[in-house]
Design brief:
The protein has one domain (about 25-110). About 35% of the residues lie in helices and about 30% in strands. The protein has 3 helices and 3 strands, in the order H-E-H-H-E-E. Strands 1-3-2 form a 3-stranded antiparallel sheet, with helices on one face. The two termini are about 25 Å apart.
């Protein structure tokens, strides 16, 4: 797994931003571990939500982590005729020692809900 600084990538200062297909803003290999499976599910959901928030911020949306802020931005995106799609690829659930490890490749897209084309 490549170690990429997310902040540098958002400023288009990392080496992967030159190649749009491998840019960290769109795709992320994530590896999350926890002692219990239910805690692992919560961590995965939180990580996916954080990635969507960071992606939308990079697209220029003003968003905060509050519940009302997320509802407001969801309303705004649907009024514009867009939707956010999160795809996970190569999912693996491993048991390493006493930890559960969830390893997957995450892809976040903003698409037009009528045509299905990526924006």
């Amino acid at each position: 797994m490549d170690k990429i600084n997310f902040n540098l990538c958002m400023k288009k200062q990392c080496k992967n931003c030159k190649n749009e297909t491998k840019c960290f803003k769109k795709e992320k290999n994530m590896q999350i571990k926890a002692k219990r499976i239910d805690l692992l599910q919560q961590k995965v959901k939180k990580f996916q939500n954080d990635m969507v928030i960071k992606f939308l911020r990079s697209k220029g949306y003003q968003i905060d982590n509050t519940k009302m802020g997320l509802q407001r931005i969801h309303r705004q995106i649907t009024q514009e005729g867009k939707k956010v799609i999160v795809n996970t690829k190569n999912e693996k659930l491993l048991r390493i020692g006493s930890y559960f490890v969830w390893d997957a490749y995450l892809e976040v897209k903003l698409v037009n809900s009528f045509t299905g084309k990526e924006i």
